[in-house]
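Risk register update: the risk of archive-format incompatibility is retired. Evidence:
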Amino acid sequence: MSQRSLNVEILLRAYTAGVFPMADSRQGRKLYWVDPEWRGIIPLDGFHVPRRLRRTVRRGAFDVRCDTAFRAVIAACAEPSPGREDSWITAEIVNAYSEMFQRGLAHSVECWRDGELVGGLYGVSIGGAFFGESMFSRATDASKVALVHLMARLVAGGYRLLDTQFITEHLAQFGAIEVPRRSYRRMLAAALGAKADFPVDFPLARVSAYLQSLTQTS
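Archived output:
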């Protein structure tokens, strides 16, 4: 497909059908629709937070905000980093997902320190499904803290599915698993039919309470 054909309506149809776009490179002129045979998810009732990270979250090492710098988060996710010299995020993807954000269909979780954006993630929100797209970190644990804050919000907001697309070593430590395409489609259909609300304003005390609930059920 050409870059010019990507828009919000196409993205909505794609996500509800279980596929998502990626480019072959940041400067690539082609986008590909991806439908993995095995899909990465983090079960909302199977999230694992290492003890050291729990302490980092509770002490408020970062000023965590939502939806205050969505476009900057995508741009940061597209930047080269050690072990990832290129990106699948093109300018057209940045523009299309920014429009999704403007329509309330995408969100960012941002970690700030001394007024500087040092980590975060973004994703698409449809019904009770949240599709995590990418994350970045310029400070130790910043992206991990953003993920914990995201999960606390998803649980509080009534979400049914956190789709991570693929499994990475980074995500596996949090309890991410792979499910076959057929099982994923069933989970997706159930999540899309559910009502959920993404809580943008979410104080640290509520995140700490969420972490405590994990301790009680683990």
